[in-house]
Amino acid sequence: MRKPYHEFSDQELIDKCRKEDKTAHEMLYKRFYAYAMAISLRYCINRDDALEAVNDAFIKLFKTIKTFDDNRLIKPWFRQIVVNTSIDNRRKNLKHAAVLDIEYADEAPADHQIISKISAEEILKLLAALPEMHRVVFNLYEIDGYTHEEIADMLEMPSSSSRVYLSRAKEKLRRLVKAHFYLNYERAI
What we know:
With 189 residues, the protein is an all-alpha fold. The protein folds into 2 domains: 1-92, RNA polymerase sigma factor, region 2, helix turn helix motif (Rna Polymerase Sigma Factor, Chain: A), CATH 1.10.1740; 97-189, Arc Repressor Mutant, subunit A. Helices cover 71% and strands 0% of the residues. The protein has 9 helices and no strands. It has helices at residues 10-18, 22-41, 47-64, 74-96, 112-116, 120-128, 132-143, 148-155, 159-188. Helix 2 (22-41) packs across helix 4, helix 3 crosses helix 4 and helix 8 (148-155) packs across helix 9 (159-188).
């Protein structure tokens, strides 16, 4: 009796994909689609852009799967493809969004009690409220762990600009947390 495709390990699917097995391509796609969308949505303005980036990333994956090093894990390798593809798809719009805001004032840091009560969904909504360039740099640096130099190369900007965008993203997040959660928290006390 033949083993069903959904029971194959990642490596077994990769081996079958290398042999141009279309069912293995489909199973690998289904296995990593949600993972890829979750990553892409952090870099794209809307779901349609994210879907386009994910599909482009899968095309790149299947074109290069023969060169995949079996000593590596597929998820981190594919994550890199998704991030790069999402950024490539957004690069033109990011160049137009590179205007920096100049209205900044020092504010007290957010209360840690409030921050600990914010759900992951609420955090994602706050991130979505950031200006595009701030959100992209924040995601690349804080969530995906890229250096400012790597971000600068990806977004074709000086590394100092990456640092500025990150700093401003954090400041805007502090303001958003204060605006959205302090009032509700203070009323609940």
